[in-house]
Amino acid sequence: MTVTLTDQPFEPGALVTAFCLGREETGAVATFVGLARAEKGQAVALELEAYPGFTDAAIGEIAQVAVERFRLHDVHVVHRVGRIAPGEAIVFVATAAGHRREAFEACDFLMDYLKSRAPFWKKEHGPDGARWIEPTDRDRTDAERWD
Amino acid sequence: MARVLLFGRLADQAGWRDRVVDALDLSSLRGALAAADPSLGEALAGPGVQVAVDKAIVRGEAVLSPFTEVAFLPPMSGG
User: Fold this and answer.
1) How many other C-beta atoms can be found within 10 angstroms of the C-beta atom of residue A91?
2) Which residue of A has its CA nearest to B53?
3) For the whole prediction, is pTM greater than 0.80?
4) Do A122 and B5 count as a contact with CB atoms less than 8 A apart?
5) What are the pLDDT digits (tens) for A31-48?
6) Residue B58 maps to which CATH number?
7) What are phi and psi of B65, to 5 degrees?
8) Chain B residue with minimal CA distance to A113?
9) How many A-B residue pairs are in contact by the CB < 8 A criterion?
10) Could you list the residue range(s) of the whole structural domain that residue B45 is in?
11) Nearest to residue A95, comparing CAs of A65, A122, A130, A135?
């Protein structure tokens, strides 16, 4: 299980290739890649702030919950921090399991958590300045599906 | 004494994000921060603001050593 926070752009394809290597008992790998949206020009950039050592530990705890709940063989989470331009990848989640259902569901579970409860602070830089963003009601109800 | 970290809108409001403050416990730390900047003191006590002491969430009082790290965390937005 690996959780990485990075302030550098990453290439999702290379991460998938590396994650799939050397697995003889894993029948399914599910992946999710989240990209920064331009919001039709309203978002010039996103800025994500994390608390190093706290944010990655919190994500690691939920990844461990996912491993146990969905009987995963492995998890890899990569999350950008700092300033992110539209079109760049913000988040990468890969789950490995014996069969596809567990891999899909664990990926969905982890993303619902990451979008609503992970310790990040998000600022949207637009043409009229910057504003801090809170989770949407949809983000919260998505996360409650798993409670 | 403690190292104080502010995140998100709290850091923007205060104009700093990392500072050493002379205080023996959490309540005297809050008092010192509020005395220096009353509106920040109010924001730190506001709804949804959590406190982490050495990266663990604390509710209530905590004793601080010179190397303790105290972080004020506004409501988290998710990624």
Assistant:
1) 23
2) A54
3) yes
4) no
5) 999 999 988 888 899 999
6) 3.10.20.30
7) -105, 170
8) B78
9) 56
10) 2-73
11) A65
* Closest CA–CA distance from residue B2 to any residue of chain A (Å): 17
**What phi and psi values does residue B75 have, to the nearest 5 degrees?**
-50, 135
Please give the tally of structural domains in chain A.
1
Q: What CATH number does the domain containing A20 carry?
A: 3.90.1170.40
Does any domain span residue B33? yes
Q: Is there a domain that residue B78 lies in? A: no
Q: Among candidates A36, A60, A53, A58, which has minimal Cα distance to A125?
A: A36
> Which residue, A53, A139, A147, is CA-closest to B73?
A53
What is the domain range of residue A68? Answer: 2-144
Q: What is the ipTM of this complex?
A: 0.93
Asked whether residue B41 is domain-assigned, the answer is yes
Q: What is the dihedral of CA B66, B67, B73, B79, to 10 degrees?
A: 170
Does A57 sit within 8 Å of B79, measured CB to CB? no
Domain count, chain B: 1
> Nearest C-alpha of chain A: how many angstroms from B66?
19
Distances (CA, A) of A11 to A20, A35, A48, A88, B73: 15, 12, 18, 9, 31
CA distance A131 to chain B (A): 9
Per-residue pLDDT reduced to its tens digit, B23-64? 999 999 999 999 999 999 999 999 889 999 999 999 999 999
